[in-house]
């Protein structure tokens, strides 16, 4: 082999972490996302899991128990609860995404990726894009069932669309939180329990099912500053489903959009940097 040929081969095999061409980076990311979607088509259990959990809560609480719920203001309980149900798509996604990353690290799949001339970050971004697609499909299914049980947005098409945009931003942030959890813990059993805790604690310590004022007094400040509460309140107001008197009186309740933007941006930045660092450390990069 000539010196020139050897040099060319070395350049081709080198990873693109050092700032390769953007089209190649995007192509690698989309290829990895497509790989996950092909796997999902063969084993759709993840899609079923992420969809069924909020649907069960929607039917159990939003439909069966709606007559028992007392929400202040002239808002139907189906309208009130819908944003709280939709938020569970993101919370439910944390555990499966974390488990998927941990399994990739455990079964040697990532080691095979390392032999390819791709940036290590494309592996994680590709997973988040495929999982975001799963979240979007689940959110669509939940919304259609919500329409079937009586939920209606009241602020027009653009604001309704903006509400779904806020939910998708929340779901994407939760996916990176799941990746951070998967690279940090690696133990599937521990991850499964932690994902369940994230779902239960963040959803029930919020205004998802009852207004902040309906919670015990010592829990109200916690619920009001819960980022999930801000996302839910922002979505409700965009949909026209936010009853007067159902939120608190503090800064997060008065400025939910601003609090949502700050909290989601901060959480996303921390999760992305932490995930990339943990992933590179795990694969010895």
Automatic annotation (TrEMBL):
One cellular component GO annotation, for this chain's record? ATP-binding cassette (ABC) transporter complex
Matches recorded under PROSITE patterns: ABC_TM2
Q: Where mainly located? A: membrane
What are the subcellular locations of this protein?
Cell membrane; Membrane
The record's section on InterPro entries has: ABC2_TM (IPR013525), ABC2_TM_bact-type (IPR047817), ABC_2_transport (IPR000412), Nod_factor_ABC_transporter (IPR051784)
Provide any one GO MF term from the record.
Answer: ABC-type transporter activity
Coiled-coil regions in this chain? none
Keyword annotations from UniProtKB, A to Z: Antibiotic resistance, Cell membrane, Membrane, Transmembrane, Transmembrane helix, Transport
Question: How does this chain sit within the bilayer?
Answer: Multi-pass membrane protein
**Sequence intervals crossing the membrane:** 47-65, 80-103, 124-149, 161-184, 196-219, 258-279
Q: Residue limits of the ABC transmembrane type-2 domain?
A: 45-282
GO biological processes: response to antibiotic
Q: What is the similarity comment for this entry?
A: Belongs to the ABC-2 integral membrane protein family.
Concerning PANTHER family, the annotation shows: NODULATION PROTEIN J (PTHR43229)
Protein name (Swiss-Prot/TrEMBL)? Transport permease protein
Whose protein is this, by species?
Answer: Streptomyces alfalfae
């Amino acid at each position: 082999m000539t010196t020139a040929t050897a040099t060319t081969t070395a350049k081709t095999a080198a990873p693109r972490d050092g700032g390769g061409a953007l089209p190649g980076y995007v192509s690698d990311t989309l290829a990895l996302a497509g790989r996950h979607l092909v796997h999902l088509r063969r084993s759709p259990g993840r899609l079923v899991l992420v969809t069924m959990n909020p649907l069960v809560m929607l039917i159990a609480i939003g439909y069966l128990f709606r007559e028992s719920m007392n929400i202040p203001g002239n808002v139907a309980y189906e309208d009130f609860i819908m944003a709280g149900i939709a938020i569970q798509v993101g919370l439910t996604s944390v555990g499966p995404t974390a488990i998927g990353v941990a399994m990739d690290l455990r079964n040697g799949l990532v080691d095979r990726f390392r032999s390819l001339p791709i940036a290590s970050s494309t592996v994680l971004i590709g997973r988040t894009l495929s999982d975001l697609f799963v979240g979007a499909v689940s959110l669509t299914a939940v919304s259609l069932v919500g329409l079937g049980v009586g939920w209606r947005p009241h602020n027009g098409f653009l604001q309704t669309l903006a509400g779904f945009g806020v939910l998708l931003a929340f779901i994407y942030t939760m996916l990176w939180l799941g990746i951070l959890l998967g690279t940090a813990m690696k133990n599937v059993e521990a991850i499964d329990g932690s994902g369940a805790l994230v779902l239960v604690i963040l959803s029930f310590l919020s205004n998802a099912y009852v207004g902040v004022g309906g919670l015990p007094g010592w829990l109200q400040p916690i619920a009001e500053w819960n980022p999930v509460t801000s996302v839910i309140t922002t979505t409700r107001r965009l949909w026209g489903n936010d009853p007067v008197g159902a939120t608190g009186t503090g800064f997060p309740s008065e400025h939910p959009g601003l609090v949502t933007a700050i909290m989601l941006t901060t959480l996303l930045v921390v999760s992305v940097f932490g995930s990339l660092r943990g992933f590179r450390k795990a694969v010895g990069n």
